[in-house]
Amino acid sequence: MYLSELTALPGVSGNENAVRAYIKKRMEPLCDRIEIDSMGNMMCFKKGTGNTGKTLMLCAHMDEVGLIVSRITEEGFLKFKTVGGIDPRVLVSKRVLIGEEGLPGVIGRKAIHLLTPEERKKAPKVKELYVDFGAKNKKEAEKYVTVGDYIVFDSAYREFGDSLVKTKALDDRVGCGALMELAQEPCTWDICFAFTVQEETGLRGARLCARRVKPDLAVVLEGTTCSDIPGTNSNMVSTRLGGGAAISFVDGTTSFNRQLVSWLYRLGEENQIPVQYKQTATGGNDAGIIHVSAGGILVISISVPARYIHSPSSVISLQDYKAVKDLTKVLMQEVDYADNIENIM
Asked: Which is catalytic among the residues 64, 199, 200, 222?
């Protein structure tokens, strides 16, 4: 399983180099050819066994949410902007790694005893936070850090409880890891394993992949929200940890083909693979841009539920991760069904 190594790599949107290099090295023996486009998307092509002339694109994004240095203060602290959607409330006192060298630092804020009563009632704003990496002043800080350096969370991979995992970047290294394992599986259709960039900042990379590949069917493998925790209203629980692979029927960017969604759910049940529907309609992923690219592409999304998503310590169930891989493997074996969907649309 590649998950522990993938999540340890830095890959904030716009700087997916380390993730791409790791995946490329391991995908080369499994694919016929690999293309990397001008944005940094990596497309790994594998010939199918059936000579059908059809193409299946399995898609996962390499990037993660993180931070970028925007200013160095006279005192040697680093001001920053968020890259992707991050709740500032999860940032205070978190450990980070700065730049290509991975310099250790910690995110700080004015001490609580110095906050006004009104400030204590409000969530911190990003502009109130800073990274302390031990520099004495701006001159010393500039020896090691420049404006524009990326900052990633410093959060180790840990397995705990009943097959649970805690680490950063599970959105979407779970998808990347699944694609790498699925590259060893046969399929009658030709396959493109598409590892995209900059999903967290606007689904940017997937647009190029969709236009280049023009698949007959695209499957997006993703980490998605999971709010099955105390204090959450039942109607706001999007997915449940341990409930299996999460299939979306609608979200903030896509309304999925209902016949395809029902077929996929039925595939899970018939093959004793745990499946669940994503219950909320918020958020989105690369499917949102794929389905409106290249004249329109049939697309489906299968996700691993992740608690505390977009934070330094997301949590998934390895059982759900396996369910996503198993369901996608069955889909690869039964992909000819998609022809029937296409013919009646």
From this structure: 199
